[in-house]
Amino acid sequence: MDWQGQKLAEHLMQILLVSFALGAFVTGYIVGSFQLMLLIYAAGVVLTSLFTVPNWPWFNKHPLTWLEPVEAERHPKPEKPVAPVGKKKSTKQK
Amino acid sequence: MHSFLYRLNALLTFSLTILAFICGMASFSDNFNTPSPSVDLKVLNVNWFLKQYGNDEVSLTFSVEADLRSLFTWNTKQIFVFVAAEYETPKNALNQISLWDGIIPSKDNAKFSTQISNKYQFIDQGTNLRGKPFNLTLHWHVMPKTGKMFADKIVMSGYRLPDEYR
């Protein structure tokens, strides 16, 4: 998931959950059923998690383009320094 | 950062916060309900009235007629009701003796009328009951699905126990 996708996923999650909660409360209050409110909201949470939690392709439409590694070529890595003498324990390190 | 589990965690915490909020709203919406319950309690008969082990004991038959439907809102789980006899003695300003109780599970059961003799014993602490005026009170405790439990009562006064044991 790219940066834009993260922002989109988070906003989508918040907007969907709040609107499901509003819808559930209003419906429950009008119908007079607490159970219906909970069911609608639970369905909303499940739907929202299906929509925003997995890494869907529409969250990957703005891939990061990295700079060409020119700098690295201009300054090549120095050679590895020779291991100092007298280190017998180095065999233990891995 | 921003892995599958991170997004799942964010979604669950946010959804539970909202759930708590809508439960609070549901509890708040109970304030817009103005209940108008009606109750009628009648003493039909004093079955017996005697002194046992130094304490007065009475058996009553009474009728309960109540319409508590207006107490039910969408946020009400059940209502607990009990009938108490209340009287004053020289030692205690208020004596309450529960005579009958019941649980009303739904609005359909909230209008009822029944005739019963006391479910629980009506025993005084002492011998104060002869000729004693007393109240019958219907108490109710409303248990909501979310939010605070609340209680109220209707007092019916003007009852009197007989002057002699029988």
Produce a short descriptive summary:
With 94 residues, chain A is mainly α.
Question: What does it look like?
Answer:
The complex is a heterodimer of chains A (94) and B (166). Chain A is mainly alpha-helical and 94 residues long. Helix content of chain A is 56%, strand content 0%. Chain A has a domain at 3-54. Chain A has 3 helices and no strands. The longest helix of chain A is centred in the N-terminal third of the chain and has 29 residues, at 3-31. Chain A is elongated. Chain B is an alpha+beta fold and 166 residues long. Chain B has 2 domains: 1-32; 35-160, Immunoglobulin-like (Sandwich). Chain B has 1 helix and 8 strands. In chain B, strands 1, 2, 5 and 6 form a 4-stranded antiparallel sheet that branches. Chain B has a 4-stranded antiparallel sheet with strand order 4-3-7-8, with no helix packed on it. In chain B, a hairpin with a 2-residue loop joins strand 1 (38-52) and strand 2. The chains are: A mainly alpha (94), B alpha+beta (166).
Structural class of chain A: mainly alpha
Radius of gyration of chain B: 23 Å
Low-confidence stretches of chain A: 90-94
| Structural class assignment of chain B | alpha+beta
Question: How much beta of chain A, percentage-wise?
Answer: under 5%
